[in-house]
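Lab notes, practical 5.
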Amino acid sequence: MNQLIKNYLNELGFDTIRTLEDITKLIRAHERAFAFSSLKVLLKEDISLELESIYENIVAKKRGGYCFEHNKLMYEVLKALGFDVQFFLARVINNTTADVPQTHRFTLLNFKGERYLIDVGIGFRSPNVPVKFGSFDDESTYSHLGISYKIITNEDGTYNLALLEKGEWFKATKFDLNPCVEADFELGHFYSHKNPCAVFVNNLVISRIDKECIYSLRNADYIKIDENEFVKIPIDSVEKLTEVLTKDFNTKFSSQEILFFYNTYVKK
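Output from the prediction step:
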């Protein structure tokens, strides 16, 4: 465990993490380096939630991962460094009232008497700062590219993680703070990568949050978002997809795997 944590920090250029500012820098470095991705799911790989396997896939092999992988890695790193962290489940509602299962993992950080939500596994909408639980619903946390986040407290005791999109608050997730155990994550993970109706089983989804832009690909729809514009970029060949996955998303997949992705999910 200690060597794994050390290797992870070395990969991102850190010696140690002590302050909230350090954690923010770690989150940003993590999201720049490692893609959020459903690609292993589409290849029908056996995806283990053992920490060593998560590290191997995301950090060493650069094959990306989704919330159960990214947020477990971040949780275990912060816990090993001595921070007071807890794990919880959420529903990804994407600004709807849809009745969806709890298939999302996130981390809660208790630091100097305040609570913060940390989520490096919600794709292109991931905050790259710890989001403070405020006393008022109008208290927000600036993240990146003009985007702010806040925790909304609902009358029923649940919460929403919301972000400002086009001047409106977009509720990304809904959650409570009821205790859960690792087995709950295994159940949500099984649904997310095995159920024939699950989003990640049926769609190519990959994103990465860089310093000055967000890269996001869902099947054939590739967009690049910065603070001032939203650009759609066509992917009209296997060569273009290879370039995008390698350079923009910093991932490593074989030519045969990329050909499969292109023919099955990207080619129109």
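Observations recorded by the TA: The radius of gyration is 18 Å. The CA atoms of residues 238 and 263 lie 8 Å apart.
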